[in-house]
Amino acid sequence: MEVFGIILSLFLLMFMAYRGFSVILFAPIFAILAAASQGMSPMPTYTELFMAKTVSYVKVYFPIFMLGAVFGKLMEATGFAKAIALKILQIVGQERAILAVVIAGGVLAYGGVSLFVIVFVLYPFAAALFKQAGIPKRLIPAIVVLGGCTYTMDALPGTPQIQNIIPTNFYGTDVYAAPFIGIIGALLIFFPGMYYLEYRRKKLNAKGEFYGDNRVNEPMESDDSNLPDWKLALLPLVSVLVINFIMTNLFQWNPDLLAPFIGMKLPLVSAAVKNIKAIWALIIAVVIGITLCAALGYRNLQKGGLATALNAGAIGSLLAIMNTASEVGYGNVIASLPGFRSIADALLSIKIGGTPLVSEAVTVTTLAGITGSASGGMSIALDLMAKDWLAWANSIGMSPEILHRVAAMASGGLDSMPHNGAVITILAVCGMTHKEAYPDMFSIVIIKTVAAFAVIAIHLATGIL
What we know:
By secondary structure, the chain is an all-alpha fold. It has 21 helices and no strands. The protein has helices spanning 2-18, 23-36, 42-77, 80-92, 97-110, 115-133, 140-148, 151-155, 162-165, 168-171, 179-206, 230-250, 259-263, 273-297, 305-336, 338-348, 357-371, 374-395, 400-411, 421-430, 434-462. Helix 7 runs parallel beside helix 21. GO terms for molecular function: gluconate transmembrane transporter activity.
């Protein structure tokens, strides 16, 4: 009965999210429902557990959400993002249109641009290109997923996306953790993903389907004559990566920086500098990237464009962070219930390979799928079990770096279920329905999930990090 209450709560949350209702509203409602089914008092569950975990997540990650959204909006408003995309098209050629869009999405994501911005940049670019090349429109969402939220989101070392930041707070690692296994994982996603998309294009073309007649949300023709130079456009992206690397690997943080704040007995203060320095490094890097983007692209902005971009990014980040934080709050309520203990014990008992890696990957990707959020699901899983996995790894001499990389890659697997916010946004922007485009999106997700488990096998066989 205890497990049934949890399952019912999860089903209702997924159903409401799929129907378009906000998880900010319904996550606490169904968390309270699950808690009440197991005898917990509703109001303390909401104010002392749900809200405490929600606020804790916001405290740590809101700067990353806000600055990332502002940076992405500025890259879009200055024309820098589109200039980079068009240059990539020139390099690879129109005959490799799918490859051009995937690479463009990857460059933007690895440079720190949010997926929610990337889709708005890539869709008009892909639509115009695919009309000429006769590539089915229904493939655009899957192509955006491969380029914007797979190998560059959590596999490649150094990516500034939030999915690569979260494990640093639990394992004391940095964003470059397990670099070689990350690169291998990225290749295991990129090449099978490209093969699948090209296979689907050929198969659909053979059936007589080309771009198609779907004109929902069809982009207008745009004037690309006044776009900035692509080399100039790359500088803000490069600056984020370089400054982040310097602040993470070369700069020596004073380990006593937090001492005065710990002495104040603040409720949410980090325990040690090593636990928060990755966040600090990325904040500094993205602030510099924003400043450089605004300075170099100011002439490309329309009157009032700077304020518009800054405001849009800041306001847009509020919805993104609160959606994810609410899912984290919900997940932590579920994790505290007696009925979840048996589930957690089963997940921790997975000892395939004699290491915590399979247990971690299964737990993270399962919770990401349940919550419909990579960062939310991973945060819940690590908050619940990271200490156990780390202790297990230490007992067998395993580096926490591989725990970081596996957790990050697993989070971006089954998170993209139909109720996932990014999935819904991508489909809406592209003017497609779940029925038309989601099967191909899900195929890319399966490739991504398999890659996460493949890198575990490679690490166990070779010991490579």
